[in-house]
Amino acid sequence: MPRLVTPRERTTSSGRSTTGAWTQFSCGCNYAEQGSEREVKSPRQPLSPELRARGGEASNRTWSPAPALSVSPSLGGRPCNAKNFGHDSLVCECNASYCDTLDPVVVPALGTYAKYESSKAGKRLERSEGRFQNLLLKLDTAQRYQKVKGFGGALTDSAAMNIMALSPGAQTNLLMSYFSEEGIEYNLVRIPMASCDFSVRLYTYDDSEGDFELRNFSLTEEDTKFLDEYAKHNLTFWAVTAGNEPTAGEIVFYPFQCLGFSPEHQRDFIAQDLGPALANSSHKGIQLIMLDDQRVMLPYWAEVVLNDPVAASFINGIGIHWYLDFLAPIDLTLSITHHLFPSYYLLSTEASTGSYFWEPRVILGGWDRGSKYSHSILTNLNNYVTGWTDWNLALDMEGGPNWSKNYVDSPVIVDSSKDLFYKQPMFYHMGHFR
């Protein structure tokens, strides 16, 4: 079924970097509203393929070698309550009365810098300040790449159940960790329509026994009615995808919910059904994202859909998942797609670790999993992607609940029996990009 991506409204842009500080922005909790975008300016010269493959510098800065005069720790937010579960790094334990926090990002004084550092040894977004000597920065403001829409995760049934299983105080600390300026300031939230594997039961919006003719169900009416029902609670959406992983429906004996589209079917569904339904509804300003599947399908899938002028007129962006990235060189998929269709943004709409059958599902303190997130984000940003969305915001100690037992890992793991949650290395890797 389609998944929704929902940026939270924010007033000005900001983020945290391991090499500096962005400007502060005020944080609201109405994170289902449309968000602003950050512009990423290009380097003076395009990045080399080798640098892109390594996840090279994404900013537009050049500098002359110069040591810092001094570096000193900056007192601020509450420190991590570190716990070691015997893996290669630590988690930060939170409960109803305590959770580590960050100070709001502020612009350093002239001639100084602020550094945020996380490490395998245990640092978690630790801020320090220093002063440069004889540093020359050259910014080429004329050459620009994509605007960054943001970063976030998915509020699945399972994520919501895990959050709600905590006491009110612990719930607040978890949500503040993700969405406030004393946390990592997510501004994208993805919401499934109807059930998915991260539900505790199978359900649709036509749970009418024997309705094989779908007399009580219409996919386009379901999509617009979903938006109507949320609007009654003052929750509006920024974008909707045409359907999650449409290739999954082509796989025989697929283990959980799926909807099958070929690129031709998705093209026609958008052109004849979903596109007009959204355009003629009270949600006609909502954006439509095609594909929402593995990047190995690009550029072919985009060529089939976007070369149809009617379908293309309803589409704003292209959603990609990361699970088969090892089969799809980024320069032969995302970069080519961008150059073929530069008017349509690329957005990473799903990623998770522990999803392959040979992997442990949850690793409490797995540093390598955070490193995989950072590498994916850097290489995507260096190839025209405008944002990066994680999968479940919170899972339990098993990596669920999941009715099909398709357990995975998450940046936040909840132990509801102790009213605790653990912030994984993945959480802090995500924080460096906000």
From TrEMBL:
Record bears the keyword Hydrolase: yes
Region listing for Disordered, in residue ranges: 1-21, 34-67
UniProt keyword list: Glycosidase, Hydrolase, Lipid metabolism, Signal, Sphingolipid metabolism
Catalytic activity: a beta-D-glucosyl-(1<->1')-N-acylsphing-4-enine + H2O = an N-acylsphing-4-enine + D-glucose; cholesteryl 3-beta-D-glucoside + H2O = cholesterol + D-glucose; a beta-D-galactosyl-(1<->1')-N-acylsphing-4-enine + cholesterol = cholesteryl 3-beta-D-galactoside + an N-acylsphing-4-enine; a beta-D-glucosyl-(1<->1')-N-acylsphing-4-enine + cholesterol = cholesteryl 3-beta-D-glucoside + an N-acylsphing-4-enine
Origin: domain of life: Eukaryota
Bilayer topology: Peripheral membrane protein
Gene3D superfamilies referenced in this protein's UniProt entry, alphabetically: Glycosidases
PANTHER family: GLUCOSYLCERAMIDASE, LYSOSOMAL ACID GLUCOSYLCERAMIDASE
Family the entry assigns: Belongs to the glycosyl hydrolase 30 family.
Name the UniProt record assigns to this protein: Glucosylceramidase
Species, as recorded: Chelydra serpentina (Snapping turtle)
